[in-house]
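Entry 14. Structure prediction run on the chain below.
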Amino acid sequence: ETGVLKPGMVVTFAPVNVTTEVKSVEMHHESLPEATPGDNVGFNVKNVSVKDIRRGNVAGDSKNDPPMEAGSFTAQVIILNHPGQISQGYAPVLDCHTAHIACKFAELKEKIDRRSGKKL
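Output returned:
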C-alpha cells in the first residue's frame, strides 16, 4: 500500500504486535534491494514462527508509525445480491486485501444508490 520494505528494517506485525527484522525481500525467488508500493513480494524475517502471524496481518516500520489494531473503522461497503434489508447488527464476511473476516455493522451512516451515487 505505502512505504518501502528493505532488508535490515525492523517491522511490526499488527494486530499480533510481533516485532522482528527483515532478512531479505524477494520477487519470484530473486532477491531485491527494496520493495515499493505495488510490488508483490515475499520477505523473510528473523525468529518468527508461522504460528506467530497469520494471513491478513499488516507489517509496517516499527520506528515510523507502526501498524496498530483498530477497534472500529468507518467503511463504504457495496452489498451484492442480498435478499432483504441491511440494518444495524448485520455481520457480513468482508474481504479486504488478503483478509476474510466477519464485521458487524454497528451503525449505518447512510445508504447510497449504486447506480446514481445519490443518498437513499
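The chain has two domains: 10-61, 70-120.
Filed with the rest of this week's runs.
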